[in-house]
Amino acid sequence: MPDNNGPRLSFSSAIGAAMAQWVDALRGPRGCFFTFHRAAPSSIWPTLPNRNFYLDLDFFDTLLSHLAASGRKVVTIEEGLRLARDPKTRGTFVNFSVDDCYRDTYEAVVPLFRRHGLPVTLFVTTGIPDGTLPMWWVGLEETLLERDFVLVDGERIATDTTQRAAAAFQDLQTRWSGVEASNHYARFCLENAVDAEAVHWRHAITWDMLSELATDPLVEIGSHTVSHPRVSLLTSEDARHELRDSRTRLREKLNISVTQFAFPFGRVDDCGPRDFEIARETGYQGVATTTKGLLTGATAPFAYPRVTLNGAHRNLLMPELHMAGATAAAARMLGRV
Length: 337
Hints:
Radius of gyration: 20 Å
Helix content: 40-55%
Mean pLDDT: 91
Low-confidence stretches: 1-8
């Protein structure tokens, strides 16, 4: 973690930052909105069964320093959308948004941004601080991490090594994917004597934490639905409930204006024109997806792209490729938008 004078970039990183400034000057103004979910210290990151879901905090610290050294401006969503529309904008601007929001958002992520004096956006799934959303992926990971084996429908699965725990997580995540995931997790908790509520509050962000963050001028808070569904699969009425009620809940609990919304999942098949229109009707001024791409003056505020940072990419090359638009171009060619 950085000392009081901030982290120092390596010589190679400094060269990379200088090259990035030169390339930015050639390609003109553009914005890159990054998103991620969780962060963990380097000391435990390799042991996590779902490690790609987390950013390594030491790498993240280095990335923020690199952006500053290369002259990239880190902005809120609202400022980024304004810069994208302004023909006077120069260079690359960047936003970081945290989806869902967990305890580590409060304990590790926001403090890191504070140390760098940079803004960060939190897209909150209100079922997490309300305790109504069964966070099955969190409980599954914690149990696999702490035990040498687990039982799943009578089957004994070894989890006594990092590799076996990670393999078990990927297998069960695939098996449980969909609307029945919470029921699978409930049976798993009974079979393995897991206290689901205790697990939830070990990892969930709380309303008290969010109330404190809401007063921080560096923190922008938006909505990420009530229960984190794939919105495109919902009826129009249920979709309105998710978008409207999450916004209302945030406004009531935090006494803030909530203008931005991020779709869970957020790829092309996960949200579409009907859902963007519902967001507009519900009172949002901007809506985030997770389609890969960059913000330009032509970007629609009700379907702007965000690039998901994979925790396994612990080097500066991948963020640079994202900011250059290379990964978005590759995704379009491969049909993986």
